[in-house]
């Protein structure tokens, strides 16, 4: 492992100490490992992939009053301190800026493969058993209802509606998580997502059976 990656890991661990458990160092580590796994099947710049994966949630806007510039500023300053080439820095910042589900309508066309790889990895960590755990953790963090039979999922929300949404945790599956499988960019990402998607369907089916005391 090169020094820049090692230093980035150390930096991210320190920066995210005490973060909400769905967006902490362990989330970053899983996305980093998934990114490397997917990258093996694609022709891409591994340094850009690894740095982007490690820094993609360094300042998640939802924990910083919606500020979407903070992560870019922190990442740029850190990478410059590590003497990373400017071309690499710009590519990493592009990934961080365009990775988010809520920003998908604003992302440019013909995305670079490095962004596609890290985006797939980040989305894969939002589904499956880990996705279920993270979703309920975040719902608890916000004190959202787990489920309410009279509150319907809001589909096709705008970015602003999505950011302000405080719907139920179960609705989040329908508003985002079940959509991710079909948004995968890479063949490897699609393959991993398929299994995790099926697990979520099984979970939701079981949840409803237990909720309704079948």
UniProtKB/TrEMBL annotation:
<dbReference type="InterPro" id="IPR003607">
    <property type="entry name" value="HD/PDEase_dom"/>
</dbReference>
<dbReference type="InterPro" id="IPR006674">
    <property type="entry name" value="HD_domain"/>
</dbReference>
<dbReference type="Pfam" id="PF01966">
    <property type="entry name" value="HD"/>
</dbReference>
<feature type="domain" description="HD">
    <location>
        <begin position="24"/>
        <end position="127"/>
    </location>
</feature>
<protein>
    <submittedName>
        <fullName>HD domain-containing protein</fullName>
    </submittedName>
</protein>
């Amino acid at each position: 492992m090169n020094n820049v990656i090692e230093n980035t890991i150390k930096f991210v661990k320190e920066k995210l100490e005490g973060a909400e458990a769905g967006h902490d160092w362990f989330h970053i580590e899983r996305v980093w490992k998934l990114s490397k796994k997917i990258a093996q099947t694609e022709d891409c710049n591994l340094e850009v992939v690894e740095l982007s994966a490690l820094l993609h949630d360094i300042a998640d806007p939802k924990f910083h009053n919606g500020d979407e510039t903070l992560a870019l500023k922190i990442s740029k300053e850190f990478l410059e301190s590590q003497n990373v080439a400017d071309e690499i820095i710009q590519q990493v910042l592009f990934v961080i800026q365009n990775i988010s589900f809520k920003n998908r309508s604003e992302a440019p066309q013909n995305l670079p493969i490095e962004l596609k790889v890290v985006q797939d990895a980040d989305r894969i960590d939002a589904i499956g058993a880990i996705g279920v755990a993270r979703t309920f953790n975040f719902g608890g963090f916000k004190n959202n209802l787990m489920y309410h039979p009279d509150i319907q999922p809001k589909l096709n929300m705008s970015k602003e509606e999505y950011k302000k949404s405080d719907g139920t945790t179960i609705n989040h599956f329908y508003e985002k998580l079940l959509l991710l499988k079909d948004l995968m960019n890479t063949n490897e990402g699609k393959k991993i997502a398929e299994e995790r998607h099926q697990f979520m369907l099984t979970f939701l089916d079981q949840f409803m059976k237990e909720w309704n005391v079948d």
